[in-house]
């Protein structure tokens, strides 16, 4: 089970601060990298607006050579911003099924840049909406809270989606984001997820490293 800290901030100063902090405790033995999940929200697909300037990330890329970024595009039109994020040298792009207009174009661009493509769904979207993307993505993300705001409670009905997705795609990478903590993580893992994405539980406690390791040891 992999754990990826999520950064849910409105400005790059705080984003950068948390990326630097994460380098002190995030460990991925598989590739010796520090994986970070960046939330991007446009205020249209979501109710709130989060930091969304990939040029900021590119400016500091040299300062964090061992950091690998997955960017969660909670936006109404991912096609309009995809190129900029690919140019920022992220390693994984997460786009929502609800906002995809042409999966072939998105897939083609990700392949050209050597970037993994993950397709996500919101809590109120049936899991079957992901089934049509077989062969298009390296994995899927179940967003277990409403898009945009950190600190929300995990929606228990999302566990059935994880199970159905695992049954449909036995070898797929499945991420779960939203409301991940020590209470929900075991249920998520048992349902078939590979990756836990957590923001509030890791960052809002007294010790981010201990919170991260607690999740990692589930």
Structure keywords:
218 residues; alpha/beta; TIM Barrel; eight-stranded parallel barrel; globular
Explain how this protein is built:
The protein has helices at residues 12-22, 54-59, 78-87, 103-113, 158-168, 185-191, 200-203, 208-216; strands at residues 2-7, 34-41, 67-74, 92-96, 116-121, 139-143, 173-177, 195-198. It has a single domain (2-216), classed as Alpha-Beta Barrel (TIM Barrel). With 218 residues, the protein is of the alpha/beta class. The chain has an eight-stranded parallel barrel with strand order 1-2-3-4-5-6-7-8, surrounded by six helices. It is built from eight helices and eight strands; from the N terminus they run βαβαβαβαββαβαβαα. It starts with a strand and ends with a helix. The longest helix is centred in the N-terminal third of the chain and has 11 residues, at 12-22. The model has no long low-confidence stretch (mean pLDDT 95). Helix content is 32%, strand content 22%.
CATH topology: TIM Barrel
Write out the CATH superfamily name.
Aldolase class I
Q: What percentage of the residues does DSSP assign to strands (E)?
A: 15-25%
Q: What is the straight-line distance between the termini?
A: 8 Å
Name the CATH architecture. Answer: Alpha-Beta Barrel
Number of domains: 1
Q: What is the H/E string?
A: EHEHEHEHEEHEHEHH
Helix share bin: 25-40%
Shape: globular
| Number of H- or I-type helical stretches | 8
Strand arrangement within the widest β-sheet reads: 1-2-3-4-5-6-7-8
**Which structural class do you get from the secondary structure elements?**
alpha/beta
Which blocks of ≥5 consecutive residues have pLDDT under 50? none
Overall mean pLDDT stands at 95
CATH class equals Alpha Beta
How would you sum up the major sheet?
A: 8 strands, parallel, barrel
Rg (CA only): 16 Å
Total strand segments: 8
């Amino acid at each position: 089970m992999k754990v990826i800290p999520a950064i849910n901030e409105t400005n790059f100063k705080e984003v950068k601060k948390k990326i630097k902090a994460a380098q002190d405790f995030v460990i991925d033995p598989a590739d010796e990298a520090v994986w970070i999940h960046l939330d991007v929200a446009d205020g249209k697909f979501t109710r709130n607006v989060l930091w969304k300037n990939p040029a900021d990330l590119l400016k500091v890329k040299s300062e964090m050579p061992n950091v690998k970024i997955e960017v969660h595009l909670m936006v109404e039109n991912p096609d309009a911003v995809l190129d900029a994020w690919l140019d920022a040298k992220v390693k994984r792009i997460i786009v929502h099924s609800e906002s995809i207009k042409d999966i072939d174009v998105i897939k083609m661009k990700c392949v050209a840049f050597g970037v993994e493509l993950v397709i996500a769904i919101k809590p109120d979207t049936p899991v079957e909406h992901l089934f049509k993307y077989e062969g298009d993505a390296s994995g899927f993300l179940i967003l277990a809270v409403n898009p945009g705001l950190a600190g929300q409670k995990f929606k228990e009905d999302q566990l059935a989606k994880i199970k159905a997705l695992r049954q449909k795609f036995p070898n797929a990478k499945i991420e779960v984001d939203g409301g991940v903590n020590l209470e929900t993580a075991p249920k998520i893992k048992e349902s078939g997820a590979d990756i836990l994405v957590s923001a509030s539980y890791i960052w809002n406690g007294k010790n981010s490293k201990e919170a991260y390791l607690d999740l990692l040891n589930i």
